[in-house]
Amino acid sequence: MNTTTAADTAKVTVATIRDWARRGVIAATKVAGRWVINTASLAHRIAIGARRLARKARTLPLTADSIKAIGGNEWIRGNYHRIYLNEWAEFAGIEVTRFNTGYISSASLGGRGIANGRAHGLLSAVSKVYFDVTDGRLYVQHHGASAYDVRYLNGERDQVNLVARISAGVRAAVAAL
Q1: Arithmetic mean of pLDDT, 136-153
Q2: Residue 25 DSSP one-character state
Q3: 152 falls in which pLDDT band (50, 70, 90)?
Q4: 31-40: pLDDT as tens digits
Q5: Are 144 and 77 in contact (CB under 8 A)?
Q6: What sign does the CA torsion over 148, 122, 88, 116 have?
Q7: Considering only CA atoms, which of 86, 57, 58, 49 is closest in space to residue 176?
Q8: CA–CA distance from 84 to each of 12, 40, 68, 116, 133 (Å)?
Q9: Dihedrals φ, ψ of 63, to 5°?
Q10: pTM over the 0.70 mark
Q11: Burial tier of 41 (Cβ tally within 10 Å: 0-12, 13-18, 19+)
């Protein structure tokens, strides 16, 4: 099949088909200076794209019921209707073990060990995480900037955007319901 037919089939531009052929995304050979596209390979690439679109479409909007289902606690007072996520650190990927005194004995962020003091700083940086039922938005109240420096055990420095990590974790938990 030629590039024009392949582009029509895949609903992309001819330039995209040529790029896929050059990079080996689809099986193709050049005959007399023109790309000949393997039909089965193109069909496989189209199927991959369809699965990606389906995965994106699966993301559910946040609702009061979905937030409660992942562990939220409902609070109503006057005109305020919120669902608080008290265990927000789990959604951010922060894992902490504690001594009997309450002090942190070990901590990790996204599966990588971090210093106990850094973990304490991350945990104390966020005061509240809640879903406002009236406007349908997730709120993360934090002190200062939303990005924090963390030094991992091997000496690497990394910036951690807690607001983005919490939001992504909550959305992933809702999508997994």
Answers
A1: 69
A2: S
A3: low
A4: 998 999 999 9
A5: no
A6: positive
A7: 58
A8: 44, 50, 9, 26, 11
A9: -130, 165
A10: no
A11: middle
